[in-house]
Amino acid sequence: MAVGLQMVFSSYGWSDVSDAQVWDEELRLARLAADLGFDVLWSVEHHFNDYSFCPDNLQLMAYLAAVCPDVDLGTAAVILPWHDPLRVAEQVSVLDLLSRGRLRLGIGRGLARREFEAFRGTMGESRERFDEAAAMIMEALRTGFMEGAGPFYPQPRTEIRPRPTRSFEGRLYAVASSDDSVVAAAQLNARMVMFADRPWPMRMPAIQKHRDLVREIHGREADPPLLADFCVCTSSMDGAEAKARQYMGKFVESNFYHYELLGPHFSTVKGYDAYAQKIAMAREIGMDGIVSAFMEAAVWGTPDRILKKLEERRALVGDFELATSFRFGGTPFDVAESGLRLYAKEVMPVVHSWSRAARQP
After folding, report:
1. Three-state SS sequence of 236-263
2. Quick one: what percent of the chain has pLDDT higher than 90?
């Protein structure tokens, strides 16, 4: 059960923090996490907005590969419809070479209309573009050559240099927040990536569907999913719930703003109709209810409370990997750092022990 740090690069809700300061602090926390024994450094890809601004997580990971030589590196995720698949395959090959096989490649198809429009694309093509590009990229990383005859990326046979030399089996991850993304992840034999944004019993049908499909398509058991968590870790429960509600509430607000989750377009855009259900629920229970549901899924409070919630999740989901964010929703840098240090000291060793216990004969 690997424990990772998820970097978000957000300044939403802050008017006095520069982009440069956000990046400086996120990188400082990443180096600290590597020193404290986190297994993976993960980063999102987002563009143009204070919701999150890491426009090239492969470039970021090339930097971290050098300054953090003893930790794995993960993209959560490279949004394929916004990239040329040939360039992605080249960049991944370079990064895996520089990191000596430490890359965990996460891919996704994107959700924010504002980002698609800025890239002069349409959300309605994202499913087909993702499926076509993902198959081409993985074949190129497997064989060293890319070619394609699809409608979006017709590609003459081209050799990838530097040549890829390591298998990505077990190192491929795919964001799966909708039913068709669950199917796509299973077809690629990728680990599911799911975000802690709703109670975990609601996630189980999708998790089980992925497991069933991997078994049916590939004849093997699915690898444990990656659960992208949001954490406020405190030394006592005094004021912990208020802090968690403040920061998680602000993050939920930013999430609804960035993705326009109360807008009507999800019910009409091809491949995104599954989000209409989430929107209907949001309208029914209101923002306070959504924040409460978010807090039920995420972890907050003392290490003991966090471990109890993770144990409950493990009993429901089974084994999983973690990508934990400590800076979101306007969380002050010092609060994020103290939470990260406490989590590394008291939560992470116990989670690692679960893996060791599971490996015992």
Report:
1. CCCCHHHHHHHHHHHHHHHHHHHHCCCC
2. 87
Alpha-carbon gap, residue 136 to 160, rounded angstroms = 12
pLDDT tens track for 300-318: 999 999 999 999 999 999 9
Residue 78: both structure tokens together: 């490279």
Angle at 22 between CA 21 and CA 24, to 5 degrees: 60
Q: Please indicate whether residue 359 or residue 48 has the higher confidence score (pLDDT).
A: 48
- How far apart CA 254 and CA 290 sit, in angstroms, is 13
pLDDT at 357: 63
Residue position matching structure tokens 């980063």: 43
**CB atoms inside a 10 Å sphere around CB 221:** 9
Provide the strand spans (E) within the chain. Answer: 3-7, 40-43, 46-49, 52-54, 72-75, 78-79, 103-108, 145-148, 155-159, 172-175, 191-195, 226-233, 299-301, 321-325
Torsion sign over Cα 305, 310, 313, 315: negative
* pTM for this prediction: 0.96
